[in-house]
UniProtKB/TrEMBL annotation, chain A:
Subunit structure: The complex is composed of two ATP-binding proteins (PotA), two transmembrane proteins (PotB and PotC) and a solute-binding protein (PotD).
Purpose: Part of the ABC transporter complex PotABCD involved in spermidine/putrescine import. Responsible for energy coupling to the transport system.
Coiled coil: none
Lineage: superkingdom: Bacteria
Keywords: ATP-binding, Cell inner membrane, Cell membrane, Membrane, Nucleotide-binding, Translocase, Transport
Catalytic activity: ATP + H2O + polyamine-[polyamine-binding protein]Side 1 = ADP + phosphate + polyamineSide 2 + [polyamine-binding protein]Side 1
GO biological process: putrescine transport
Entry-linked PANTHER family: PUTRESCINE TRANSPORT ATP-BINDING PROTEIN POTG, SPERMIDINE/PUTRESCINE IMPORT ATP-BINDING PROTEIN POTA
Record protein name field: Spermidine/putrescine import ATP-binding protein PotA
TrEMBL record, chain B:
GO biological process, one term: transmembrane transport
TM spans (from-to): 30-50, 102-122, 134-155, 185-207, 228-252, 284-308
Keywords recorded for this protein, A-Z: Cell membrane, Membrane, Transmembrane, Transmembrane helix, Transport
A single Gene Ontology CC term: plasma membrane
Cited PROSITE patterns: ABC_TM1 (PS50928)
Subcellular location: Cell membrane
Coiled coil region boundaries: none
Official protein name in the record: Putrescine transport system permease protein PotH
Organism for this UniProt entry: Candidatus Rhodobacter oscarellae
Length: 374, 316
């Protein structure tokens, strides 16, 4: 199998095929005409704000909701008439949904018992998975007697132990505190790599999606805004929504003044922006340009040669975050541009540092600006 | 160490402050004390009075029993405890059979209530946001009319010339009226009808708190709906089943009005015997002994249940 099966569609059939799926609850369209292919071995993240339809899409894959239109197939089999208990999927619920009257061990064994697996084999499988999630010492406990992090691992173990073709995880880390969440993100990715099961993870945390996923889909109002690898999504967002939702971006309206095969020029409030790669735009059209704060250099000295991709402003505010500082630069027009810079030098004396009301020059590489069509 | 203020410099506190402080530190005790005194006054005290009378002897006087403690002339105190009443009850097969019959009727009624109440409660919990309050209201609606009136209504429905018999004869299903009133059947109808809400409401309260995602989790792990019911829903609703069953079983065992009105003289239940001893025979000591035995019959299963539940909770 290739590392990036989605690039080689001729030789790879997707494990999950979602075609034109919509789901309505009364007047609310929770999922709106969605298409998606997910390949064996992927760790795919569905990322979006609260209420955008992530859980609904996941529940349709699990078989708890059925689409109003469109089709879902898993492993080449159409799922439209397959009930949840016959699907080759397992789900880790946001609330974990552990059985409160069963011990950890019995929670995990529950799924295997449904397959009428021999007792000895069940015991072996439960033992294995408990080792994987490091809960051997807690197998006799009831869920109420565990910490949040331990419960989370029981839920994961219970879903994984059946070795499903597809594991669905609804906000698997949302209930953990920040430190534990970071640590568990990597654990989750490691476990996925070890077991080789395809994961679909729902999250509203963009950092989590970036850390975990092979590919991700950014969702808004029931639709996919963009699907791609974390790098693609971050560096090449296609819309203002995605540029703004993932990380932060200064977004400026502009007009295309030149459009050629290997560069584009756009006229904006920041002066002329020169982009050193071709884009699908036409000269004279209105467009938006996104510029990430960390890709802007702030300097007190003027650039040697005048040209595109530079402008002047005044420091309006500085936010000191420890590892970086955010500079709010006010342009002549009054617009505020964000720029971040790492604090590489410990500012014992602030004489050389940039400070409030300083006149500064902004500049950026011609590869940095992101053209956004919508 | 930092300086510690000398204890003398403590600010003076007003009586109101002290009172509120006292409440804050003792509120737990106060909260427990209220029901505690309530029970003491209205349950434990009457029970001891009844227990005391049950150990007395019948006497034609007012009140119609002997005193437990008597003072004879020279300041000598005599305590008379008479166990004859209990021996009398235990030896007379009428009482023993009536107790057994009461238990049979109340246990059976409880099971029937459970059989009907469980699916009803489950249906209410699963119903939509519009239907739910309406259904709940319907469950408690009968309480709006007098209990006695409703039992009389059943007499009208069940009697030989009653609505049901007339209807069945009218549509030609039967020629002769079926005897329903003054049978055990009528008593079952009355008890199940009266106590069904007491089964439904605790079950509803229990099921309402059930996390429906547990059912989905079970389905997700490959469990079919029937299996999910027996392995997930049923075990988690045991507290509701126990609460509802006790609420039906306890009053049904001592039920007086229903067997009297719907069972006539044909259905012996301990409530009727108790009433007869008390008001017809004015044999208060025997009546009280009957009540004490009944109390132990009812309390025993609860104590046993709590004992076993405690054991189950201790087990790992
Ligand atoms: N069972 C349901 N009944 C009615 N509306 C629902 C139901 N489930 C979800 N919705 C609605 O669908 C939309 C998407 O919900 P959901 O998929 O849970 O979003 P997310 O998981 O992204 O936060 C929301 O507007 C929500 O209110
Ligand atoms: Mg959700």
């Amino acid at each position: 199998m290739t590392e990036e099966p989605w690039l080689d569609q001729a030789n790879n059939t997707p494990l999950v095929q979602i075609r034109g799926v919509s789901k309505k609850f009364g007047d609310v369209t929770a999922v709106d005409n969605v298409d998606l292919d997910i390949y064996q071995g992927e760790l795919f993240c569905l990322l979006g704000g609260s209420g955008c339809g992530k859980t609904t899409l996941l529940r349709m894959l699990a078989g708890f909701e059925f689409p109003n239109s469109g089709s879902i197939s898993i492993g080449g089999q159409d799922m439209s008439t397959v009930p949840a208990y016959e699907r080759p999927t397992n789900m880790m619920f946001q609330s974990y949904a552990l059985f409160p009257h069963m011990s950890v061990e019995r929670n995990i064994a529950f799924g295997l018992q449904q397959d009428r697996m021999p007792k000895g084999e069940i015991a072996d499988r439960v033992h294995e998975i408990l080792k994987l999630v490091e809960l051997q010492d807690f197998k006799k406990r009831k869920p109420q007697q565990l910490s949040g992090g331990q419960r989370q691992r029981v839920a994961l173990a219970r879903a994984l132990v059946k070795e499903p073709r597809l594991l669905l995880l609804d906000e698997p880390l949302a209930a953990l505190d920040k430190k534990l969440r970071k640590q568990t993100q990597f654990e989750l990715a490691n476990i996925q790599e070890q077991v080789g099961v395809t994961f679909i993870v729902v999250t509203h945390d963009q950092e989590e999606a970036m850390t975990l996923s092979t590919r991700m889909a950014v969702m808004d109002a029931g639709r996919f805004q963009q699907i791609g690898t974390p790098t693609e999504i971050y560096e090449f967002p296609q819309s203002r929504f995605v540029a703004d939702f993932i990380g932060s971006a200064n977004i400026l309206q502009g007009r295309v003044t030149e459009d050629s095969a290997d560069h584009v020029r756009v006229d904006t409030e920041l002066g002329e922006i020169y982009i050193d790669h071709g884009q699908q735009v036409s000269t004279g059209s209105q467009i938006w340009v996104g510029l990430r704060p960390e890709k802007i250099t702030v300097s007190k000295s003027a650039p040697e040669t005048p040209g595109p991709n530079q402008c002047k402003g005044v420091v309006d505010d500085i936010g000191y975050l420890g590892e970086v500082s955010i500079y709010k630069i006010r342009l002549d027009s009054g617009t505020i541009i964000d720029a971040t810079a790492p604090n590489r030098i410990r500012p014992m004396s602030r004489t050389h540092a940039i400070t409030w009301e300083d006149e500064v020059y902004l500049s950026w590489e011609p590869s940095s600006p992101m053209l956004l069509n919508t | 160490m930092t300086d510690i203020a000398p204890s003398g410099s403590r600010p003076q506190r007003s009586p109101l402050d002290r009172l509120s402080h006292w409440f804050q530190t003792n509120w737990r005790k106060i909260v427990i004390a209220v029901p505690f005194f309530w029970l003491l006054l209205f349950f434990l005290a009457p029970f001891f009075i009844v227990a005391k009378i049950s150990l007395a002897e019948l006497r034609i006087s007012s009140p119609p029993f002997t005193e437990m403690i008597e003072w004879t002339g020279d300041g000598v105190m005599t305590i008379r405890l008479v166990f004859d009443n209990f021996i009398f009850i235990m030896e007379d097969s009428l009482y023993v059979n009536t107790y057994l019959n009461s238990l049979k009727i109340s246990v059976t009624s409880t099971l029937i209530c459970l059989l009907f109440g469980y699916p009803i409660a489950y249906g209410i919990v699963r119903s939509g946001p519009v239907a739910k309050p309406v259904l709940l209201f319907l469950v408690i609606l009968p309480f709006w009319t007098s209990f006695l009136l409703r039992v009389y209504a059943w007499m009208g429905l069940l009697s030989d010339q009653g609505t049901i018999n007339n209807l069945l004869i009218y549509i030609g299903l039967i020629d002769e009226p079926i005897r329903m009133l003054y049978t055990e059947f009528a008593v079952y109808i009355g008890i199940v009808y009266t106590y069904l809400p007491f089964m439904i409401l605790p079950l509803y309260a229990n099921m309402e708190r059930l996390d429906m995602s547990l059912n989905e989790a079970a389905a997700d792990l490959g469990s079919k709906p029937m299996n999910t019911f027996f392995r997930v829903t049923l075990p988690l609703t045991i507290p509701g089943i126990v609460a509802g069953s006790l609420l039906v079983f306890i009053p049904a065992t001592g039920e007086y009005v229903i067997p009297d009105l719907l069972g006539g003289g044909n259905v012996q239940m301990i409530g009727r015997v108790l009433f007869n001893e008390f008001s017809l025979n004015t044999d208060w000591p025997v009546a009280c002994a009957v009540a004490v035995v009944l109390l132990f019959l009812l309390v025993l299963p609860i104590i046993l249940f709590q004992y076993f539940q405690g054991k189950a909770a201790e087990a790992p």
